[in-house]
Each structure stands twice: as C-alpha cells, then as structure tokens.
User: Which sequence fits this backbone?
C-alpha cells in the first residue's frame, strides 16, 4: 500500500473541502456590498454564522496536514507564498471577528466599519488564495530542500488571473448558497447575480485551463498525448455539461441544485488541476514521494484520519441538518 | 524602516507577539467552556433559573473570546511554515502528526458543535444542546492536550531518531506524545486556564456586587469563582513545583536562570529578589533565604543545585527576563491562593457577599490569571533558548530563508492589526462585563430586536423552563 498516494488523496480532499465550504461563506462576504437592506445583510450573515468556523477548520487541516505528511512541501510553499499567505491570515482575522463584533458595536457607524472589514477581509482572502494557487501552478524555485526565490515571485499575470477566478468562483458559491437559504426578493436578486457569475466563472475556467497548458511541458503532455487525451477528454466535456446545467438550474427556479451543480463544477475543475499536477507537489522539482514524511508518520496519522474523518463528516452533516431550511429573518435566535 | 531587525529576530518577535495574544483567548475559552458546561448541567439538574441566567451572561463572552481564539490560532499554524520553514522541514514528521491529531480530534469537534451550542437551543432538545456544550468543552481540553504535547516535545524531546536528510522521525510515538515534561506542563496549563477564568468571573461578579450586594446572579458567580480560587490555587502551586522539579531534571540551565544562580552550589539560597547581571555573573541587591533553593529543588538543604556556569555562556538564555517573569508568575500564584483563603474566611463568617475589600481585591485580580500565564510562558519559552528543539535544533537554524524586509513588514502588519482588532474585541468584552447579570437577558433584547450571535441561544429553553 502506498501511503504517500493515500495521503496525497486525503490532502487533496481536505483542500477541496475547504475551497467549497469556506468558499461559500467567503462568497457571502464578496456579495455583502450588493446587499442593500440591513435585514438582507443580517439574513446573509445568519445563514453562515453557525458554519464558518467549522468550514475554516479545513484550512487548518490543510496546513497542519501538509506539515505532517509533506513537510518539505510545507517548508517550501509557505515562504514562497509569504506575502499572499500573510495577507490571507490578516484578512481572515478581520472577517472572522466581524461575525461577533458587528453585533457588539452599539452604533450604526461601528457596524458599517466591521461590515467593511468583513467585505475587505473576504475579498482579500479569496484573492490571495487564488494568487497562491496560480503561483504554485507556475512553479517554485527550489535549491537544496529550500525555497530559493525572492519574496515577490508569486506576483505574475497568471497568478492575478487565478486570483480573480477564485474571487468569481467564491462569489458564485455564495450566491447559490443564498438562493438555497433565502426566499422572495433576496433570492431573486441572488439568482440574477448567480447567472452572471456563472458565465464569468465559465470564462475564467476556460482562460486558466488554456493558459496553464503553456506554463510547463508536463501539463501539456498530460492532456495531449495519446492515449491520455481519450481518457481525460470526459473532464472538459463534463465541465461544459455541468456549466450549462447550472445556468439552466439558476434560471428554472432550482433551490438547492444551483449550489450542488456549482460544487460539481468546482470539483471537475479541481480534478483537472490535480491531473495536471500529478505527481508533482511543488512544481517543477519536487514530487509527492520526495516531499512525503517517513512512512511511520504517515501510518500514525492515517489511523486517526481513517477513524475520525468519517465521524467529522457525520457531525458536520448533522450540524448542517440542524440548521436546514430557509433562514427566517423573523426567527430571532440572536 | 523594514530593516529594523534581522530576519531571525523579527521572526522571533513575531512569534512571541502573536502567540502571546493568542494564548489568552484559548486559556479563557477552556475555562469558560467548562464553566458553561457546569452551569448548564446544574440548570438541567435543578431547574433553577439562576443557572440559566448566568449561562446566558457568559455565553456571549465565550462567543467573542472563542472567535478571537480561532482567528489568532490559524495564524499560528501557518506561521510555523512561513517564518520557520527549516524547523517545519525537520520536525514535520514528528510534530506534524500531533498537530494533525489536534485538528481531527479537537478543532473539528469544537467548531462542529459550537454552532449548535450558540445558535441551536431552539432547534434541538435540551439534552442535545447540553451534549453540544459538553463536546465544545471536551474539545477545548483535547486541543490543549495535543498542543502542549507538541510544545513539551520541543522542550524535552523523546522517542525520536534523526534520518539521513536531518529530519526528526518517531521511533516510539508513545514516548513522543507523553514526553518527560508533558504531563506536568499539561496539568499546569489546564489549571492555569481554570484559574484565569475563575478570577475573571470573580472579578466581574465582585464589580457588580460592589454596586448591588443583593444581585443574586453576581453572588452565584462570585461564590463559584472563590471556591475555585480556594481549591485550585493550592493544587496549582503543587503542580508548578512538580513541573519545576521536572525542569531541573531535563533543563537544568533553565532552572539556573530562573533561580538566578550563576554558580552551581550545595546549600543554594533561594533568591527572592535582585537584579541578575549577566556580564559580571552576579545578582545585585539580592534578598535571599539561605539553603532554601536546595531544599525546594532537591528536598535536601545541602543538595547540589546547578548554576549557569555549568554550561557554555554562549548557550545561556536571557537571564533577567527568565528570572523576573518567573517571579511575577509565582507572586501572582501566591496572591491567588491568598485570595482563596481570604474568601474562605469571609464565607465562614457569612460575609462573602458583603466584604467590600475582598471584592475590590477580586476586581484587581480579574486579569491576574492572564498575566500569570504570559509570565509563565515567557519563563519557559525564553528559558529554552537558544534552541527550538532543546539541545538539538537551534533557533538560528530553524528560520525561513527570508529577506529581513519581508519579515519586518509582516511583523509590523501583525502588530497593527492585532492591536486594532483584538483591542476592539477586548473593548467589547468590557462592555459585556458592564451588563448587570441579574437582569433578564430577554428584557434587554426587547429593546434591540436584532443583536449578537449567541445572545439568546437558549431562548427555546427559556419558554420550556417555566
């Protein structure tokens, strides 16, 4: 049994879980400037208040898990992405405390300040995560098991594009979450937003996918050599199908289906990204096996992960079930 | 301006600053979660409304503190990689899994049930809601278990080998997790968390008692807090003493710095106060009790106590800082025990709720636990320098290959953001403490129909409770 591959799969799952889960609650922050009334804002905030903390825990699992299972990758990626990661951490502070602070301040001006922190924090967190993705895809300069680049290497046109793509993607997730959780005017407004955002995300996925092929040879070869081409062609085809289904679901009054289809769309894009990456973990020089912890460490943590991750998924699902249904602005649990 | 400190010093300052802020929040979260659990259990058992009121009073504080703990904690887990990448590469195989277990067994548990605890009272039954509170409380302690195991392994590494690329790898996981200093550090820190919360609750209650002696909710809080002070403070002093003996065994140089002993000696005096002068290797203006250090540390008045000169001077930690932070911690611990005894005396005489000088002192002691925790951590963390993994990996060899301006800039950003955000948070906490606890929280709410997360999480229970 190859523990490295098992852990690569688990880490990929943890990152994906983070992207989708914190993605929709960061998305609420991205849509916040477009919500006019205080009641809409409160509804949007209440729809994610019980979940955001659990969602963000996947980010800690991603970081802590990488440290445990691929410490060399962690040790190279963190300094390589220094500025965007620090910005992301600071942004997450502002948006995290806003959940409590906006209700604690006594004045409307105070609330507007924390709402601004919530918005800016969400935008910066989403954008820097996209930047981090783009910078990693581009490759990282490594000499002797250590990052050897400068502290601005991450900033390129490609990483800016991926930054914008993630912002658009999270906003779409947020809009679809609100379609699911709200009714009437706010829901109709979110449908309009989601429809436009879905087109925008489609364009982004296309642009990033095509650009990525030209970044390094292995990416191009992975997709365009025989017989890979035939095995892998369902991925882009399915992405188009899901995208069209999503547009239709948003139009035709789907409640939960737009959210689930967006997740599927994210899943396909993410899967495509993983296919391009494999077997690298820090392109272009470090592969999964070079970066992995000794097998004893992988086994030790896998015992716990195998038992605990299903339990975590079960009680996470339970907490979503407890708060199921529409957010009722009159149901005042605050 | 971004070259103020060299990269390693800036990274050390950043870690010290961010973790000093962070540790305050989980320490209070641990204590408050258990306090809330006890209150809710008492309410379910007795049906007395007062427990529910006090629960509601502190749940809002808990929500704010917990939120700040989460966001400042995420910073810590990523900072290991951004600023200490060499350390990450070398210790990842051994410490990473412990942190992984912290996330899997504690963080998800806390976060998963926190939503139900804060917002779910009218959506789930009473018992399930109580169960959620228990899970959050247990989660806070499990989290402490793993992170203190990690810290203790760095202080007293055990069960490891070093592989061909210089990484620490585990030979015996049991020895790694239960390394020699871990049981002592874990007990000492959990007791500290409980005492910190007890004195915070006691201080807030005392302030309200000074304004209104008949406030029944404040009386309940004060009484519970003073029981904790009476019982837990002496236990903490014993635990601290045992922890010190363990440190003497494994990190004698740290003990020498804490005691201000430059020369190893038999029948060593206990230096109460003084000013350690590292250059001249002496303590100026010292007040000392003969032979007491030997008695405490070796249980023999003529026992040998090591001195700093037993070790290379280049490896000494910052002696005055360790010496003084240790004394501040001990002084606060003794003061806590005295307050506990004073409260017992007042309680026996039936004056617990009318002794206004006791209340004034209790207000003064409200932040004492926080200060003691900071002083204690400064003692142990500064005291293990110049190593990150004691005796094996030096701090200077642990840092990331970053340019000084990058680390200085991020240090500045963290300082500014932490003061703004957590300054505001602490301000809001004070506003929460100002609310008179006996008022029915529902009455407050009627005036402000949309208020905070967690403000009346137990609303459903309120209706059933009558």
Assistant:
């Amino acid at each position: 049994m190859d523990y490295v591959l098992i852990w690569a799969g688990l880490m990929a799952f943890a990152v994906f879980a983070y992207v989708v889960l914190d993605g929709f609650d960061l998305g609420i922050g991205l849509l916040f400037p477009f919500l006019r009334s205080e009641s809409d804002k409160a509804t949007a905030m209440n729809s994610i208040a019980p979940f955001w903390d659990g969602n963000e825990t996947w980010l800690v699992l991603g970081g802590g898990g990488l440290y445990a299972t691929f410490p060399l990758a962690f040790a190279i990626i963190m300094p390589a992405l220094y500025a965007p990661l620090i910005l992301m951490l600071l942004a997450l502070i502002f948006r995290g405390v806003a959940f409590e602070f906006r209700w604690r301040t006594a004045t409307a001006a105070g609330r507007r300040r924390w709402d601004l922190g919530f918005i800016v924090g969400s935008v910066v967190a989403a954008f820097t995560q996209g930047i981090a993705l783009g910078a990693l895809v581009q490759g990282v300069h490594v000499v002797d098991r250590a990052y050897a680049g400068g502290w601005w290497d991450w900033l390129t046109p490609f990483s800016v594009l991926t930054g914008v793509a993630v912002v658009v993607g999270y906003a779409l997730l947020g809009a679809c979450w609100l379609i699911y959780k709200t009714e009437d005017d706010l829901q109709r407004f979110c449908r309009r937003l989601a429809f436009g955002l879905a087109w925008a995300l489609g364009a982004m996925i296309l642009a990033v996918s095509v650009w990525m092929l030209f970044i390094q040879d292995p990416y191009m070869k992975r997709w365009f050599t025989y017989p890979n081409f035939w095995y892998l062609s369902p991925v882009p085809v399915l992405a188009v199908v899901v995208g069209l289904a999503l547009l239709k679901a948003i139009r035709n009054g789907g409640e939960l289906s737009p959210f689930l289809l967006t997740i599927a769309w994210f899943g396909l894009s993410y899967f495509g990204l993983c296919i391009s990456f494999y077997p690298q973990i820090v392109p272009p020089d470090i592969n999964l096996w070079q970066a992995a912890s000794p097998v004893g460490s992988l086994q030790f943590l896998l015992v716990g992960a195998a038992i605990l991750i299903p339990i975590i998924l079960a009680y996470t699902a339970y907490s979503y079930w407890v708060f199921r249904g529409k957010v009722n602005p009159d149901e005042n649990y605050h | 301006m971004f070259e103020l400190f060299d990269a390693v010093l800036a990274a050390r300052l950043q870690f010290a600053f961010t973790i000093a802020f962070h540790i305050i929040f989980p320490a209070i979260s641990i204590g408050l979660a258990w306090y809330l659990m006890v209150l809710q259990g008492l309410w379910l058992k007795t049906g007395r409304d007062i427990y529910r009121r006090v629960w509601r009073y502190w749940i809002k504080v808990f929500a704010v503190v917990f939120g700040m703990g989460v966001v400042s904690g995420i910073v810590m887990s990523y900072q290991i990689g951004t600023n200490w990448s060499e350390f990450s590469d070398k210790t990842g195989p051994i410490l990473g899994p412990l942190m992984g277990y912290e996330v899997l067994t504690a963080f998800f548990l806390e976060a998963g049930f926190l939503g139900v605890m804060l917002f779910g009272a009218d959506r789930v039954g009473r018992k399930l809601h109580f169960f959620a509170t228990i899970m959050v409380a247990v989660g806070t302690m499990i989290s402490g278990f793993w992170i203190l195991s990690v810290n203790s392994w760095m202080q007293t590494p055990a069960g490891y080998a070093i592989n061909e690329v210089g990484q620490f790898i585990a030979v015996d996981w049991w020895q790694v997790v239960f390394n020699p200093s871990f049981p002592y550090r874990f007990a000492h820190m959990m007791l500290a968390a409980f005492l910190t919360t007890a004195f915070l609750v006691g201080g807030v209650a005392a302030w309200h008692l000074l304004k209104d002696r008949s406030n029944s909710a404040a009386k309940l809080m004060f009484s519970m807090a003073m029981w904790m002070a009476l019982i837990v403070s002496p236990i903490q002093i014993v635990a601290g003493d045992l922890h010190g003996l363990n440190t003497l065994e494994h990190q004698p140089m740290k003990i020498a710095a804490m005691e201000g002993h430059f020369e190893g000696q038999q029948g060593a005096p206990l230096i109460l106060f003084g000013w350690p002068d590292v250059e001249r290797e002496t303590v100026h203006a010292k007040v000392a009790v003969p032979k007491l250090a030997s008695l405490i540390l070796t249980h023999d008045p003529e026992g040998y106590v090591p001195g700093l000169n037993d070790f290379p001077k280049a490896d000494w930690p910052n002696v005055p800082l360790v010496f003084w932070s240790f004394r501040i911690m001990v002084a606060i611990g003794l003061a806590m025990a005295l307050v506990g005894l004073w409260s017992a005396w007042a309680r026996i005489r039936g004056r617990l709720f009318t002794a206004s000088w006791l209340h004034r002192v209790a207000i003064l002691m409200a932040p004492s636990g926080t200060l003691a925790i900071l002083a204690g951590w400064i003692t142990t963390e500064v005291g293990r320098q110049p190593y990150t993994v004691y005796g094996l990996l030096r701090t200077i060899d642990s840092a990331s290959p970053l340019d000084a301006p990058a680390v200085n800039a991020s240090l500045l950003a963290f300082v500014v953001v932490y003061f703004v955000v957590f300054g505001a948070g602490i301000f809001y906490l004070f506003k929460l403490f100002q609310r008179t606890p006996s008022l029915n929280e529902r009455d407050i709410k009627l005036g402000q129909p949309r208020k905070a997360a967690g403000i009346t999480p137990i609303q459903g229970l309120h209706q059933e409770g009558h």
About this structure: Residues 189-396 of chain B form one domain. Chain B touches chain A through 84 residues (CB under 8 Å). Strands of chain B lie at 160-162, 168-170, 265-266, 270-277, 282-289, 304-305, 387-389, 393-394.
